[in-house]
Amino acid sequence: xxxxxxxxxxxxxxxxxxxxxxxxxxxxxxxxxxxxxxxxxxxxxxxxxxxxxxxxxxxxxxxxxxxxxxxxxxxxxxxxxxxxxxxxxxxxxxxxxxxxxxxxxxxxxxxxxxxxxxxxxxxxxxxxxxxxxxxx
Length: 136
Hints:
Order of helices and strands: EEEEHEEHEE
Strand content: 25-35%
Number of helices: 2
Number of strands: 8
Helix content: 10-25%
Largest sheet: 4 strands, mixed
């Protein structure tokens, strides 16, 4: 199996169906509800980056060239991690999106006023209305 992870028990595992539960700062194992669920890869990363404390592990281990690691089952974060949502522009080709992509700046003279959309390769020479051929 390509990309699979071999557990110490000999079972091959492919995918991210093993999950870890993330609890808030005031978490205890008997009385807490998870605030998030992450895949086991993310859980191991949070543990190694010291952004979460592991309260409980699964019995399975993941083998790597540098060692064998137990998979975290329950994590506690000292402070809730901020989720950064990046603003995405739509992939639709429009004047507005081209201006946004070029930061409302002329690519030829760096002006920020009286902007137009120009073809790098003119239409008369076979230029098309594509992202790569249009500049502000």
